[in-house]
Design brief:
Elements lengths: L10 E7 L4 E8 L18 E6 L8 E2 L3 H5 L13 H7 L2 H8 L2 H7 L3 E3 L5 H6 L11 E3 L5 H12 L1 H7 L39 H7 L2 H17 L5 H16 L8 H12 L8 H19 L10 H13 L8 H14 L3 H6 L2 H12 L4 H11 L8 H11 L5 E6 L5 E7 L2 E8 L2 E8 L19 E3 L7 H8 L11
């Protein structure tokens, strides 16, 4: 962006939001220059920009143009919805979007953005196939397709902003008009009060928009998302991405009860990784980032990975399904999702789940699933210092270590006591060490029994006891003497 002369005073760049009918702050413009670099997402094509100086003097309003885009052949709009995600929720356009999506695969093939994966199925492509047609040929990206070309190809059906949303591109809500969209009008005389240089208000995200809606509008959007997820596996990858991102925003807006949302998210993640279409790199990176955040959110429903219940199995099976995507997760896209979810739902559980750290942990869970002693060590590391009643945790750690010979785990409680649990069939021993010495209990387990089968709340009476300053029972002397409490190793 260039001005006719260097700015004598600093100011801010503003963009006109045609949805909310107001000027919004894009970013600061320091004094002393006549050229400034602005991200394309902050100054999309066809939108109006102006400069507001610190002395409240306004520049002329100018519209952003793209010479490359002007040289492209004009395409007639096919989709009837072609709305932003926020408009989709506000205006109830979900049913129309679902109808529009039936044209997307055929359109992408027609304009050369995709090609049929197998030449033998070329006749099917010529006949056309909707998203719900099980016989639709797999498609792959056309060679050399740029991001701009792909967005332009999707625009007639999805609209530019919905395509950006599905690819996790950092465009602003309420912008991105293209084709023959109405551009709106400018009114520069009515916004004195909200044009201050320090204005930081942002347009609402989809999740925030859903929170503003009434019960019937929220229920309508929820039904749309569930229908989209159910069909997603048969659609091009960009639509699968759209389904997962809508689910994540729906979770941020609390659209589903606690006993329902995990199933919706799992279905969306598995559709994301369904076989068939080959994604282009832009679809793939977005899909990987959505999968990583989706897994991290699903992880919040798991009490403990060592507890082999339905929730843990659901989380792990989802990780297996999307594992091939995860190496392509992009940190900037994850951060974008994190910021959106935090804005719509600042509750600690959900906000923490969308971070790059949580996503990385879920990627690690899926790609490098620990087994045996390593799983036990990780369990103790996550909860060190151990609670005073550490026995339930120690039993689960022994179960993860999966052994019948000498296996032990240990740590330090919040009260500073060292504690060790050791197992070598048939004896299980738990010993604590404090200033007065070591004391503990031991159980002789039945043939075929192991610590993983025990419930601490229903443990039988110990077979042997010993108190501080007293010798260990002879049955566990060899077992416990082999455990070097001074070692820094947690698992042996």
């Amino acid at each position: 962006m260039a001005s006719s002369a260097p700015l004598e005073l600093g100011g801010v760049l503003q963009r006109y939001d045609v949805v909310d009918d107001r000027w919004r702050r894009v970013g600061p413009l320091p004094a002393g220059s006549d050229h400034y670099s602005v991200e394309s997402a902050s100054a999309p094509v066809s939108q109006a920009l102006r400069i507001l100086r610190q002395d409240h003097v306004l520049s002329n309003s100018v519209f952003v143009s793209d010479p490359e885009r002007l040289r492209r052949a004009h395409q007639k709009a096919i989709g009837k919805a072609r709305a932003t995600p926020e408009e989709l929720a506000r205006l109830g356009l979900g049913d129309q979007l679902l109808a529009d999506l039936e044209e997307l695969r055929r359109h992408l093939l027609a304009v050369g953005a995709t090609v049929v994966s197998n030449a033998d199925t070329g006749q099917k492509a010529e006949n056309g196939s909707g998203g719900e047609d099980a016989d639709a040929p797999p498609i792959r990206p056309a060679p050399g397709l740029s991001l701009e070309d792909y967005l332009a190809a999707c625009d007639p059906v999805l609209g530019h902003r919905m395509a950006e949303f599905s690819l996790l591109l950092p465009a602003l809500a309420g912008v991105g008009a293209a084709l023959d969209d109405a551009a709106g009008t400018l009114d520069t005389d009515r916004d004195v009060d909200d044009s201050e240089p320090d204005e930081t208000e942002e347009a609402p995200t989809l999740g925030e928009e859903l929170r503003r809606q009434g019960t019937s509008e929220r229920a309508r959007f929820r039904r749309f998302v569930e229908r989209l997820v159910a069909r997603a596996a048969d659609y091009p990858v960009i639509v699968r991405n759209l389904a997962v991102r809508c689910v994540l925003h729906g979770l941020a807006a609390d659209l589903w009860p606690d006993d329902r949302w995990p199933d919706v998210l799992v279905e969306a993640l598995k559709a994301l990784a369904a076989s068939g279409d080959e994604p282009n790199e832009h679809e793939r990176d977005a899909a990987a980032s959505l999968a990583a955040v989706g897994l991290a959110v699903l992880r919040t429903d798991v009490a403990s990975l060592s507890r082999r219940d339905e929730r843990t199995l659901r989380y792990e099976s989802s990780g297996v399904a999307v594992a091939q995507l995860l190496p392509h997760a992009a940190e900037d896209k994850i951060e974008l999702l994190d910021a959106e979810i935090l804005r719509a739902n600042p509750s600690r559980q959900l906000a923490d789940a969308a971070t790059a750290v949580a996503a990385a942990r879920s990627i690690d869970d899926a790609l490098r699933r620990p087994r045996g002693p390593e799983r036990a060590a990780r369990l103790l590391e996550l909860l060190d210092p151990l609670p005073e009643v550490a026995e339930p945790l120690l039993l689960r750690a022994l179960a993860l270590a999966e052994g019948t010979e000498l296996v032990y785990v240990r740590g330090t409680t919040v009260g500073g006591k060292r504690v060790v649990a050791a197992w070598s069939t048939p004896w299980l021993a738990i010993e604590r060490t404090g200033p007065a010495g070591a004391w503990g209990r031991a159980w002789k387990l039945a043939a075929g029994q192991a610590p993983g089968m025990l419930d601490w709340e229903q443990m039988p009476k110990a077979t042997r006891y010993w108190s501080a300053g007293k010798p260990r029972p002879e049955e566990v002397v060899e077992l416990l003497s082999s455990v070097d409490l001074a070692s820094t190793e947690r698992v042996g």
